[in-house]
C-alpha cells in the first residue's frame, strides 16, 4: 500500500467527483499553488493510485436497460475451476462487475441488459453454458437508489 497524505486525499476526492477539474481549479479549492498540485497528480498517476480517467454515461439516455445481480455457484471450487470461470466471465460484455465471494455463493455478478428477454438469452445462452456453473440466482433492480464511482478514502 502506498502512502498518501491529506492533500493527496483531497485531490483524489475532487477528481473522483469531476475528473475534468483542471490544476488551476484544484489549486484554488485546496488553497495550494498549481505546481505542487500538478506534481502530486503526476505522482498519483505514476504510482497507479489514479489508474485512469473515464466518462460516465447516463445509461437511461442511451437505451432502455435493466440491472440484474446474479449469484453464481460452481460445482467445484478448486483454484483452476475458479480461474477458468474468471477468464470466461471477462469475455462477456453484459457482465459489468464480477466478485469472487465467500459465503453462500461463489460469485456475484452485476449484469446490464436491454430487457428481460435479453437477460434470458444471457442467462441461458452465456452464463449457464459456462463450465462448472451449477446454480444461478437472479435479483432484478427495480430502482437504483444510490450509485457512485467514488472510492471512499478510509
Describe the overall structure.
- This protein is α+β, with helices and mostly antiparallel strands and 154 residues long.
- The protein has helices at 6-17, 23-30, 34-46, 59-62, 79-90, 116-127; strands at residues 66-74, 95-100, 107-113, 133-140.
- Strands 2-3-1-4 form a four-stranded antiparallel sheet.
Please give a quick description of this structure.
The chain has helices at 6-17, 23-30, 34-46, 59-62, 79-90, 116-127; strands at 66-74, 95-100, 107-113, 133-140. With 154 residues, the protein is an alpha+beta fold. It folds into two domains: 6-46, Arc Repressor Mutant, subunit A, CATH 1.10.10; 59-140, Alpha-Beta Plaits.
CATH architecture of the largest domain: 2-Layer Sandwich
> What gap, in angstroms, lies between the N and C termini?
13 Å
Q: How many domain regions?
A: 2
Which strand-content bin applies to the residues?
15-25%
Q: How confident overall, as mean pLDDT?
A: 94
Class computed from helices, strands and strand pairing = alpha+beta
Q: Helix share of residues?
A: 25-40%
* Main pleated sheet: 4 strands, antiparallel
| CATH homologous superfamily descriptor of the largest domain | Lrp/AsnC effector binding domain/regulation of amino acid metabolism (RAM) domain
Q: Secondary-structure element order, as H and E? A: HHHHEHEEHE
CATH class descriptor name of the largest domain: Alpha Beta
Treating each run of at least 4 consecutive H or I residues as one helix, how many helices? 6
Per CATH, what is the topology of the largest domain?
Alpha-Beta Plaits
- Uncertain runs with pLDDT below 50, 5 residues or more? none
Write down how many β-strands occur, each being a DSSP E stretch of 2 or more residues: 4
Rg measurement, Å: 20 Å
Morphology call = elongated
- Order of strands, main sheet, comes to 2-3-1-4
